[in-house]
Each structure stands twice: as C-alpha cells, then as structure tokens.
Amino acid sequence: SPSGPIQTFKLNDGRDMPGFGLGTWLGFISTSGNSKSQEVENAVKWAIDAGYRHIDTASIYDTEDQVGNAINKKIAEDVVKREDIFVTTKLWNDAHGRYSVLPALKNSLKKLNLDYVDMYLMHWPIAQYLNGTFYDVDYLETWEAMIAVQKKGLAKSIGVSNFNKAMLERLISNSSVKPANLQVELNLNLQQPELLEYCKEQNIVVTGYTPFGSIFPNKARSEAPPPRVDDPKLVDIAKKYNKTVPQIVLRYLVELNIIPIPKTITKSRVEQNIDIFDFKLTQEERDLFKSYDTNYRTIEPKMWQESPYYPFEMK
Ligand code: NDP
C-alpha cells in the first residue's frame, strides 16, 4: 500500500471500523440504466487494491450490486477475506415501519450478495414514501427494528445518519442500544464542532460525508463559501507536503478524528485520496482550515421540512 497505517476506530459495541472509506453515491441522477454500468464496481476493485477496507453504499444509491460484485470478486481472487472489509449500507426512508426494516436489509444483502453488513445506518430520521409523501413513523420505532436485525446477525453494528444532537439524545435516552456510528455531512464549510464533541462524549464514531464540500468549482453552488481547490493558501500547503489540495482537505478531516468517505470513480483519484497517511498538518495550518467553517450545508433537503423529523435548521 502506498500509504501509511490508517487509524482503526473502536466502536461502542466492541467492533472495529476502518478510519477511511470509499463513497459510492453517483449523485442526483436517474438510476434507470445505471444498474448495468460497471463504474462503481471498477472503483471498488481499484479501492481494495489501493488499500481501502471500508466501502459506503445505501439502498437508494442503486450501487449495492456493483459494490457486492467487486467485493466478492476480490474475495474470490484471494486479495481479501470478507472479515477484512467493512461494508456500510443504509435503510431508506420508505422502509421505516417496524415490519419493513428486516425485508429492506434482506433485499440489500441480496443485492450485495453478502451474508451480513458491518454497519447498517438509518439513512434519515424521516419516514417518507418513494413518491415523497411523509408517513408518521417515529425513528424510535425504526431503531427498535434495527436492534432486532443486529440481534439476528445480519448487521454487525447499527447506527444513524443525518440525525441532529437533540435526536441523538432522544434516541439514546429511549432505547437499549446506542448507535455505534453517526454519518453526517462534514467538510471545510460544515465542521460541526458541537456535534463532534457530543459524539466523542457518547463514544459514537463519526463518519463524514461529502468531504470535499464545495471545493470543486463545477460542483459548488454559486452562493457556496470559499475556498475552492485553486485557493493560493491551500495550493501552497499542498505543495509543501507534495500533495494535492483534495488530499490536504482529507488529511484535515482525518485529523478531526472523523472517518471521511470520499467518492470517486476515477482510478487515479481513488489512489490519490487514500494516500494521506504519511504527513501531518501543523497547528497553524489546522487553524486556517478551521477558519472556513461557516455552517454551510451542501446537502439540505428543504422539501422535507414538512416532516416532523426534519433534522436541520429551517430555512
Ligand atoms: P464527495 O465530497 O466525495 O465528492 C465527490 C466528487 O469529487 C466527485 O465528483 C468526484 O469525481 C470528485 N473527486 C473525488 N476525489 C477527487 C480528487 N482527488 N480530485 C478531484 N476531484 C475529486 O461527495 P459525495 O456527496 O459523493 O460524498 C461522499 C460519499 O458520502 C457518497 O458517495 C456517499 O457514499 C456518502 N453520502 C452520504 C449521505 C448521507 O445522507 N448519509 C449524503 C451524501 C453522501 P469523480 O467521481 O468523477 O472522480
């Protein structure tokens, strides 16, 4: 492996979670016709060859089959064993009812062609049909059904995504199993120090999604705050370590003690993104990165504000 050791996080249920992963969400695009594409399968194979041991998918991404194909092929090739790979998938909003969780996970496992996932996350606290209409299931009820699938061994660990601090507090004080993992948006413009501090106190490991935020001009909305990837200060720091700006951004997130899961289907970027474990930023550099935190969200589903369980600030 070109990179140094990747930190392993000890979960509150005793299991280990690799501190760096590959995202596999292809974005807001039509999924019809996607299923035949091999781009995610290729990316996951390159990732395993490059030393990734943690893959993030979700039933709504429509990439579970490709993720599973890649993992099963690498197992068949004797490159890895099943227990070496940490697979996360997520329960979609349309399966929050107490009798829907087990069939939803079984469906994910069938697509993945795996016997278990390492982490099963409730994708959002919101219960919603595929057509967009909300239905009233409290996430506490959904969580009880997730505890049941963990007891069956189909998910080794369970956690939540897109929960705010108040929701985590309510979940923790009303259930017998604490989430092992919280997955939320974390990047230069959304560093969420209070939420991270709370998770540290509660011994909940945090995964950071959309780690690049708005650094790439072609992905940034016009109102998105700086910096961009060509920012002179960032370019200078990157040069100093003989790295790229995306690499020093990922390194900063690693130094916040969170697990970044950058997505890429480009081979050179798959390899580049994990090659960040052989250098360390200075305090001064970390202070500069910290100064970009403006509490700006890239993932903000305002159309879900009508749900009683909308997790973010109302706009
Ligand atoms: P990312 O911040 O990972 O950005 C992905 C984009 O960055 C792609 O366009 C990719 O291009 C590009 N890119 C990646 N590496 C580089 C590089 N080194 N140089 C230049 N460009 C690069 O965004 P995501 O929103 O995909 O977040 C990552 C993952 O987090 C998702 O894939 C998903 O698994 C998870 N997620 C979870 C959510 C949740 O609700 N729980 C919500 C959103 C994401 P290309 O692929 O063309 O190379």
What does this structure look like?
The chain is of the alpha/beta class. An eight-stranded parallel beta sheet has the order 3-4-5-6-7-8-9-10. A hairpin with a 5-residue loop joins strand 1 and strand 2. Helix 1 packs parallel to helix 9 and helix 2 packs across helix 3.
CATH superfamily, by name, is: NADP-dependent oxidoreductase domain
> Helix/strand/pairing class, anyone?
alpha/beta
Which oligomeric form is depicted?
A: single chain
Query: What best-fitting shape do the alpha-carbon axes yield?
Result: globular
Strand order within the widest sheet? 3-4-5-6-7-8-9-10
Kindly state the mean pLDDT as a whole number?
96
What is the number of strand segments? 10
Bound molecules: NADPH dihydro-nicotinamide-adenine-dinucleotide phosphate
CATH class wording: Alpha Beta
Question: How much of the sequence is in beta strands?
Answer: 5-15%
As a whole number of angstroms, the C-alpha radius of gyration is 19 Å
Under the CATH scheme, the architecture is: Alpha-Beta Barrel
**Series of secondary-structure elements, N-terminal to C-terminal:** EEEHEHEHEHEHEHEHHEHH
End-to-end Cα distance, whole Å, is 45 Å
Residue ranges: pLDDT <50 for 5 or more in a row? none
Can you summarize the main beta sheet? 8 strands, parallel
State the CATH topology: TIM Barrel
Helix content: 25-40%
Q: What is the count of distinct domains? A: 1
